[in-house]
TrEMBL record:
It comes from Xenotaenia resolanae. The keyword Phosphoprotein applies. This is Leucine-rich repeat-containing protein 41. It comes from the Eukaryota. Keywords: Leucine-rich repeat, Phosphoprotein, Repeat, Ubl conjugation pathway.
Length: 149
């Protein structure tokens, strides 16, 4: 039996890290069959990598991000997002909604490269920093022949 975990709330970074730890424990359990995760609102897109690393068996992820003004500023480096990922993910469906001023396209492309089985991708609200181009994102997507837009 496969389970769907759905959670809709505005999380603080520390809450997401605690949640990721619990997901990791669940994922490490031989009894776990969690393959779908629906979560929002996260304070920064970098936390998506944390959730994917904590739940490497996910086939479907829906995640929404919204920049928050309270609390300390988010630091991507302490989550290891600067390090390249070589592990492949079984993700087939990815939905990302972003409501923040700017989104780093390199981060999203690094996640997409780890998902060779991705067949469905929905990205909404992504605003690139001034001077950035969508070309890297588009070339990453063009390499995924079975992807539906």
């Amino acid at each position: 039996m496969k389970y769907l975990l759905c959670c809709v709330a505005i999380f603080r970074e520390s809450d997401v890290l605690d949640f990721a730890g619990a997901l990791k424990q669940l994922s490490d359990s031989s009894c776990s069959s969690l393959v779908h995760l629906n979560i929002g609102l996260l304070p920064h897109i970098g936390l998506m990598k944390t959730l994917l690393n904590a739940s490497p068996r996910l086939t479907s992820l829906y995640v929404e991000f919204q920049t928050v003004m309270w609390g300390p500023q988010f630091n991507l480096d302490h989550l290891g997002t600067a390090e390249p990922d070589i592990s492949e993910l079984p993700l087939e469906k990815l939905t990302v909604k972003v409501t923040q001023l700017q989104t780093d396209p390199h981060f999203l492309t690094s996640v997409l490269r780890r998902c060779p089985y991705l067949t469905s991708l929905h990205i909404a609200g992504m605003r690139l920093p001034t001077g950035s181009s969508q070309s890297q994102l588009l070339s990453t997507l063009s390499g995924k022949e079975s992807l539906s837009f």
